[in-house]
Every structure is written in structure tokens, then in C-alpha cells.
Amino acid sequence: MQAVVVSEIHREWKLIELPDPRPQAGQVLIRVRYSGMCGTDVHLHRGQFPAKLPVVAGHEPTGEIVEVGAGVTDFKVGDRVGVVWDQKVCGRCPSCQKGVSCPNAQTWLDLGGGNSELMLAWASGCALIPDGLALEAAAPIFCAGYTVMSALRNASPAPGERVAVLGVGGLGHLAVQVAHALGLETFAITGKPDKRAELLELGADEVVVSGDDPGKALLDAGGADIVIATTSSAKQIGSAFNGLRPRGRLVSTGVADGPVAIDSFGAMIAFREFRGAVPDKRSHLTEILELAAKGKVEPKLEIYPLARANEVRDRLEAGKVRYRAVLAHA
Ligand SMILES: [Zn+2]
Ligand SMILES: [Zn+2]
């Protein structure tokens, strides 16, 4: 099989021939059709993400199952699936007991990711893609979409509340659509005025174009009960926290570029909360896959052939990918 292998940090990823893998007990073999590219791939390239190299990256894969290992009874050959990050958790650690991300989970780092013609995955890490949802549109749901759905659910939105999405790229443009689909008043906060029309079309009730101080811009627009922060800017996240209404919650979904400074006095008197979220409950994944299948969430994609993985990663690093880039396999 052909696979894009990351051998060293800061070096070209190489498209090479590797032996076809065979699934062990509990695993499946997937013919990958699409593989989304995420910010983590840039962190991996820069050595900012702990990984044992060489590795095949790609944690937003979708495709068809071509072989099942012994004991796999819930999937069959021909099933259209995607694979989540935490494929098989230990079930024993304190995080597992609390139902959050397991530090001992088996992931693409253990079995290899989706930037490859064939990919092994634990069956427990696979999810069926609903009929009517294209494999390319489903790909970004498996990290970006799952993450924002979990972030919004973990913000405990109540009917009538206002959600502001800070940063409207790969994750943010999905968060805007999800919040709108759930019937919540949705604000998009962006530094790019040229995105305004697109964001209104995606379902934003209002677009706040902000400079250095999104918190002030948000307060000027009436504040928000929930901020879903998808930016990596610690400064922007700290500022947006001040745009929360009383009892507001900010959920951070990404790796910030430094410590986030929070106005603790403002948090105290207004009962504001800072929360974190990564994909936790499988029901969140199902929920956003269903929204996508109904056309209520439509990832905006740039699709490139797998052989151009280096170029796509460079585009992502340079901030040139407008929403989400997906690699297409031949
Ligand atoms: Zn990701
Ligand atoms: Zn665990």
C-alpha cells in the first residue's frame, strides 16, 4: 500500500510503499478514501506534538471496511466508517472512570493513521457513516466536528442562550452551523471581515469582526452565554472570556499558543466559568454525523490528492486553508 510517512520533524513527509497490514483480533482494515488534515498534523511536523516516529498521520479518515479481524461482530466488510482519535480505551484509569479522554488509549499513533491506502483500526474506534453523507464530508467530522459538538454539549446550552464562536476556521465554521442547527442564537467572531457573508450563510445570526479585543467587541454586541473558542491565540481566548454574560461558560477546544490569562475578578463576581473539552461521549459524534447527513452541517472543504500532503500541510501552517482540507485517496 502507498502511505505518507512522517519520519523526522521539520522534514518532508514521504509517499512510500509499505506492506499491506492485516487486522488482528478486535481490529478492522479500512480502505481509506478521504483523510482530513488537522492542526495537530502541523504540530506533529514541528515537533510540538509527542509522537514516536516514523508514523503515518491522519486522524480524520473515512472509507470502507475491507477485512475484519477475529471477534469483530459489530462491523462487516463493505461498511462505510470513520475512525475517532481514541480507538480503544483502557477502561481502568481515573479518566476512564470519569468518562473523559483516556491517557492510555490506542490511537492512530499506535496503529497508523489515514494518510495511507489501507489503515488498521480497533473496531471500537470505528463509527458507521449515515446513508446520504458523503465520505469526504464525513472526514472532518471525526476530529473537528466531534470536538465542537462535545464542546457545545459540555457547555450545557439552555434554550434561548446565545453562543459565540471565536475563530471560524476548520472547527469554528462547524461550531457555527451546529449552534444554529440546535436553535441557539449564534454569533461568529472573526478577525477576517471578508468571511462575513459566508458566516451569515452558514447560520450565524450576527458576525462580530474584532481586532485585538474580541471580549470587548462581544460585550458591545450584548455578550454571550457560551463562547466556543476554536482559536489557538491565548490572548484572544483570555479577552473573549470577558465577553461572557453572568454565569457564562467559555469552552476551549484547541491547544493555545501559551497560558490563557483570565480576569479572575470578573469570573468571581459574574460566576463565569472556563471549561475544556475534547471528544468524550460517542453520542456527540452520532449527533453531529446525523446533523451532517440531514444537511444541517456542511463542512466546507478543499480537496487535494494524497500525494500533495506536504503542500497541504504547508498551506495549513501558513493559515491559507480557509476552512478544512481533506486528502483524497485514488
Ligand atoms: Zn484533529
Ligand atoms: Zn483509561
From TrEMBL:
* One protein family per Pfam: ADH_N
Tell me the superkingdom of the source: Bacteria
Cofactor names: Zn(2+)
Where the record annotates domain Enoyl reductase (ER), the positions are 10-327
Identify this protein by name: alcohol dehydrogenase
Q: Any idea which UniProt keywords this protein has?
A: Metal-binding, Oxidoreductase, Zinc
Q: What family is this?
A: Belongs to the zinc-containing alcohol dehydrogenase family.
Top EC class, one word: oxidoreductase
Q: What is its EC number?
A: 1.1.1.1
